[in-house]
Design a protein that fits this description.
The protein is built from twelve helices and five strands. By secondary structure, it is an alpha/beta fold. The protein has two domains: about 110 residues, 3-Layer(aba) Sandwich (Rossmann fold); about 140 residues, no CATH class. A five-stranded parallel β-sheet has the order 2-1-3-4-5, sandwiched between helices.
């Protein structure tokens, strides 16, 4: 991944560059200390991602993004901000911002967000490659062709920011398994049966299946906690964010989401008290997938 950093604070630019380099998350191909200077440099360099400060003198982050898009730049943006102004944050989301990095800059938060951005970038380009391949096929594809179960689930997990989580692969398999086996049933089978079905892919002995089932449960739990953290982060910045409003009440207990939001507001990077309900999450994902498939 190729990054361009726009921030009027030299220390912030150096810190972000060090985090990217040390974490082997890509390379920084340029930087600027103002929006005005950034415009020609970004358009010339065409980075994959622009990390841009929200508040800068003269041309602020949002105005800079608008100018870049008007001039044809199609890369991704990550906003850097030390304020929690809901109106400005909401405007940034409207301009296409996917993630925020909060100031003071936290290494763990930056690495986590950039890894998610990388995963989204790879997924986007994989889909583009698929579309280009299909474009060369002479047989026309009906525009009404239904999306696959995996494509629908991936789109939902992408909205939740967890396509890069290991447990997401287990979730996708289990949803495919249930939908193909139980299309007329609105309820999921017991979680134990789902874990064992996923475990049997690579394991044969009962002892290995039992052990792998526990590993699968833990991987899925971590993925769901990551989804909760992502939604809670969105909600703590902007309670009216569309993704937060749509997914939080469907996939989680709102009381637990609010508890995690409170932890985030208090500066906690770890989920200390929040409880997650794996069955509720998977049941909501199952119903959401069935609805999007039109079944």
């Amino acid at each position: 991944m190729r990054y361009f950093i726009v921030d009027d604070d030299t220390a912030s630019r150096r810190m972000l560059e060090n985090i990217i380099t040390d974490g082997e998350l890509g390379i920084v191909i340029g930087e600027a200390d103002s929006g005005e200077k950034a415009l020609p440099l970004v358009l010339a360099a065409q980075p994959d991602v622009v990390l841009i400060d929200l508040l800068m003198p003269q041309l602020d982050g949002i105005e800079t993004i608008e100018q870049l898009k008007l001039q044809g730049f199609q890369g991704q943006f990550i906003m850097i901000s030390q304020i929690v102004n809901k109106e400005m944050v909401g405007e940034a989301y409207d301009k296409g911002i996917e993630f925020f990095i909060h100031k003071p800059i936290n290494r763990v938060e930056v690495q986590s967000i950039l890894k998610k951005t990388i995963e989204q970038f790879r997924l986007k380009h994989s889909l583009m490659a698929i579309r280009e391949s299909l474009a060369h096929i002479e047989v026309p594809i009906s525009p009404q062709k239904q999306r696959s179960v995996k494509e629908v689930i991936l789109s939902i997990l992408n909205d939740l920011g967890i396509t890069g989580e290991t447990g997401s692969r287990d979730i996708i398999f289990m949803m495919e398994f249930v939908i193909h086996q139980r299309e007329d049933d609105a309820l999921l089978p017991p979680l134990k049966d789902l874990y064992e079905a996923a475990a049997r892919i690579n394991k044969t002995s009962e002892s290995d299946i039992k052990k792998e089932s526990k590993s699968i449960e833990q991987r899925i739990r971590r993925a769901i906690i990551a989804a909760l953290n992502n939604l809670a982060s969105l909600g703590s910045i902007d309670y009216t964010n569309p993704k937060f409003e749509y997914y939080a009440p469907r996939f989680f207990d709102l009381q637990e989401v609010r508890l995690r939001m409170k932890e985030i507001d208090e500066g906690s990077n770890e989920t200390m008290k929040v409880k997650i309900n794996i069955k509720k999450f998977l049941q909501a994902l199952y119903i959401e997938t069935i609805e999007k498939l039109g079944r």
